[in-house]
Design goal:
48% helix, ten-stranded mixed beta sheet, binds ligand 26V, Rossmann fold, 811 residues, 2 domains, alpha/beta
């Protein structure tokens, strides 16, 4: 454990400041002060980092590598200090120097190298692996431009380029000596040498992959793991690469630009698959660089190539890094000289795969022509994997050609990445019980029958260190005061808090904490959005990517309905509410952008209507990101988790909200089901179609949104309001939404679930008025949230999939 007293810290800090900036502390800006604190923190971390690596080399423990196209880390400083166990000391020391720690923490740019749930999950997992002493490291891409910055201009989303590296990044260390070369394009020649076939890759375009390492500090345990992000650079001129054309200036520039493009941008899409060659390049780039560096590391440490599967576990976060399978085969065969069977054994023993969505439009498949041209050797290996798979299927499913072609990795002119991932790994998991069942019974059922033992569930989790201890210090203090602090290392100990569910004084303290958080958020909303909101109203929060299946439309329609009711009856007895939305739409997702416009139009209308604006308010908060979520979630009363049942694989904000004492209004989808199972029906508000009903509609039809509309006057009115100029002088403005509901028969059952949603919101109103009941529910939710710590999830991965970590060794 790092032991640093306040006086020592102050001395170190002042010295660091002067060393970095060459001026006195008193002359520094807040940003300078942040840089010095972050730089000092890094110095503290570095020694531990080295000794952790030394320990891993000495013990020879199995190492886990988490490959992901996205890591949504957010800010690093606060959580690193917290995990080092010195955040309080720093806070006091800085305060002696007249500096506010939180103000410095606010100076840090979010590291937003991800779209949403999948990227944030990767970040929570890194924190949990380090905190559980599991040797687990991240491998990804150092995008120069993270997720775009969202601006709302005249109610519409406008995307601005993001530039998180503009002031440098104190957390990373560039490691040019560990660079790797990744080869694209060219041709593969086969030669026979000493009775073996060897594959020679000519005329390829070489790309230099440079790693940047970031320390991932475990919670008070002296462990520092590594997040290694790769950046693409052209090979420098000194390099002699005969097979690649040089000398021509314009070609050289073209080469430089095409290489640099690889780590330039994060694709801002989290559902729609697009066959963009740059994305395929990105995937192979980081997978190849990562695997080469891992294998080089083990070889340098004397690990025999045939023992690799005992020394490493490679996890692929969705199919995006699935090229790890053929790439590992290539390295083992072409570079290390193993035969197919040995290489295959090692590869499949090493690799495991998580699926994060069943949305068909998100399933990756690459046009074979494109694939072959970009990755000729990798394609050959995939062809061989597929040959062997199909051979197996022919023997097993004699004459069932349809089934065999359905399951093939190569079919209809495409490489199907999910099939590759399933075939080439030893474990396939879903991210919540329902999701895993749907994978087994519906989406991947053919493969489930072929490999029943590969399939398993690992319900998602979130790190309670960031999402509770860091984000909600007052609630943390209340927990420690009432039940002690054992839950920090053993989050399920939070159950002890349930004893206080009916304790009036604890209820009162919880209420006060929530109110303080709401006041803070209200001030922030005033400062950033210029809107006055009432901290005594219910904060009803819907924050996540904007997507039709997440049904921000459903939420918006009920606000429109409520508005109509209030206009009709200004004395309507309802709980005053502040409706808070935030989320980004993919730049090319027209409908999602239209939903943002609708929310903003409704906000504009309601917030400026004196007949209602002291009862309800609507706020769309700009530029949703990790640091904003950390401000909003602790202030939420009601958590909106209203996706179309079967569509949300898990959800993770649902867990963050419950842990912060919000009450959930939800469909029985994703992990909402497990939350319900934990807290009981009386402590959650459930509505909407069941899984069966939804699947029935999808499979057998029979749904008609218009026929429901004709029997519900309130709903009919709000749907008309979309098109009658009520919310825009341009009557066609919300036509995309209208058409999705009516013309295209409401794919996500917004119309169907409307009535049951309104009733559920009525129940929320009744509960909220009952102070004791509401706070009892909040306490119960907090008490049962420990199981949703990503520590539990990671423990399950370690023992059930990776065969790594302390608990595994002691089984
Ligand atoms: C998918 C795709 C599809 C093709 C092109 C680009 C691209 C980029 C990212 C993704 C990932 C989308 C999947 C995702 O984020 N799923 C979410 O994963 C969360 C963590 O498991 C889970 O809680 C959410 O329910 C799920 O939507």
């Amino acid at each position: 454990m790092l032991k640093i007293g306040k006086e020592q810290f102050k001395k170190d800090y002042i010295e660091k400041f002067i060393e970095m900036h060459g001026t006195e502390l008193s002359e520094g800006t807040d940003y300078n002060k942040y840089e010095a604190l972050a730089g000092l923190t890094r110095d503290y971390v570095v020694k531990m980092w080295l000794s952790t690596n030394k320990r891993y080399n000495d013990t020879g423990e199995k190492q886990v590598y988490y490959f992901s196209m996205e890591f949504l880390m957010g800010r690093m400083l606060g959580n690193t200090l917290l995990n080092l166990g010195i955040r309080d000391v720093c806070k006091e020391g800085l305060s002696d120097l007249g500096i506010d720690l939180e103000r410095l923490e606010e100076m840090e740019e979010d590291q937003g190298l991800g779209n949403g749930g999948l990227g944030r999950l990767a970040a929570c997992f890194l924190d949990s692996m380090a905190s559980l002493n599991i040797p687990g490291h991240g491998c990804g891409i150092r995008y120069k431009r993270g997720f775009f910055e969202q601006k709302i201009i005249d109610g519409s989303q406008v995307e601005a380029p993001e530039n998180w590296l503009k002031n440098g990044n104190v957390w990373e260390i560039k490691k040019p000596d560990k660079a790797q070369i990744v080869k694209f394009g060219g041709h593969v020649r086969v030669e026979r040498r000493d009775g073996h076939l060897i594959f020679i890759h000519d005329d390829y375009e070489p790309v230099l992959a440079i790693p940047y390492d970031m320390p991932i500090v475990g919670y008070e345990n002296d462990t520092v793991n590594t997040l290694r992000l790769w950046s693409a650079e052209p090979l420098s001129d000194e390099f002699d690469f005969s097979s690649f054309s040089r000398g021509e200036y314009s070609k050289a520039i073209e080469y430089k630009n095409s290489v640099e493009a690889i780590s330039q941008i994060l694709y801002p899409d989290d559902t729609l698959y697009e066959g963009k060659i740059l994305r395929l390049k990105q995937q192979y780039f980081f997978v190849s660089a990562g695997l080469q560096s891992i294998i080089r590391h083990f070889k340098n440490n004397g690990v025999g190539i045939r023992d690799l599967d005992e020394k490493m576990a490679i996890h692929i976060n969705d199919t995006h890094p699935a090229l790890a399978i053929p790439e590992l085969m290539r390295i083992l065969m072409d570079e290390e000289g193993l035969g197919w069977d040995d290489a295959w054994r090692i590869t499949t023993n090493t690799i495991s795969y998580t699926n994060h969505t069943i949305l068909a439009e998100a399933l990756e498949k690459w046009p074979i022509d494109m694939f072959k041209r970009l990755l000729p050797r990798i394609y050959m290996i995939i062809e061989e994997i597929n040959e062997r798979l199909c051979g197996q299927l022919w023997n097993r499913y004699i004459g069932q050609w349809d089934k065999i072609s359905r399951m093939s990795i190569l079919s209809d002119g495409y490489v199907k990445m999910a099939h590759l991932a399933i075939v080439g790994s030893h474990s396939v998991n879903g991210v919540a019980k329902l999701h895993t069942e749907i994978l087994k019974k519906e989406e991947m059922t053919d493969f489930y029958y072929l490999y029943p033992r590969k399939f398993n569930n690992k319900t998602n989790g979130i790190t309670h260190r960031r999402w509770l201890i860091k984000a909600n210090p007052q609630l943390t203090a209340l927990l420690i005061d009432t039940i002690g602090d054992s839950w920090i290392k053993h989050p399920t100990d939070m159950e002890k808090f349930e004893r206080f569910a009916h304790d009036r004084s604890v209820q009162g303290r919880l209420y006060d904490i929530k109110r303080d958080n709401k006041v803070r958020l209200s001030n922030f909303i005033k400062r950033t959005q210029g809107i006055d909101v009432d901290p005594d109203s219910m904060f009803d929060v819907h924050i996540k990517r904007i997507h039709a299946y997440k049904r921000q439309t459903l939420n918006c329609l009920r606000i429109m309905a409520l508005y109509n009711r209030l206009i009709e009856n200004p004395n309507l007895d309802i709980v005053p509410r502040t409706f808070i939305f935030a989320g980004k739409a993919a730049p090319g997702y027209y409908l999602a952008k239209n939903i943002i416009e609708l929310i903003n139009s409704v906000a504009n209308r309601i917030n400026n209507d004196p007949r209602v604006n002291n009862i309800i308010k609507v706020v769309f908060m700009e530029n949703y990101r990790v640091s904003l979520a950390e401000k909003i979630i602790p202030a939420a009363d009601l958590s909106e988790q209203i996706s179309t049942t079967t569509k949300e694989a898990s959800g993770t904000s649902n867990m963050k909200f419950m842990m912060n004492g919000a009450v959930t209004i939800a469909t029985l989808d994703g992990a909402n089901i497990e939350i319900r199972d934990e807290v009981g029906d009386e402590n959650i508000i459930i509505f909407g179609l069941t899984e069966r009903e939804v699947l029935n509609y999808y499979q057998t039809g029979g749904y008609s949104s218009t026929s429901i509309l004709s029997s519900n006057a309130i709903l009919k009115q709000v749907v008309e309001d979309l098109m009658n100029g009520q919310y825009s002088s341009d009557k066609d403005k919300f036509k995309p939404i209208y058409e999705s509901l009516i013309t295209y028969n409401d794919e996500f059952f917004v119309i169907k679930d409307f009535d049951s949603y309104i009733k559920a919101q009525g129940r929320a109103d009744i509960l909220y008025r009952d102070f004791t009941e509401w706070n009892k529910i909040a306490i119960t939710n907090i008490a049962h949230s420990g199981i949703f710590s990503s520590d539990r999830t990671i423990q399950e991965y370690a023992t059930g999939i990776w065969g790594s970590g302390y608990l595994y060794k002691n089984l």
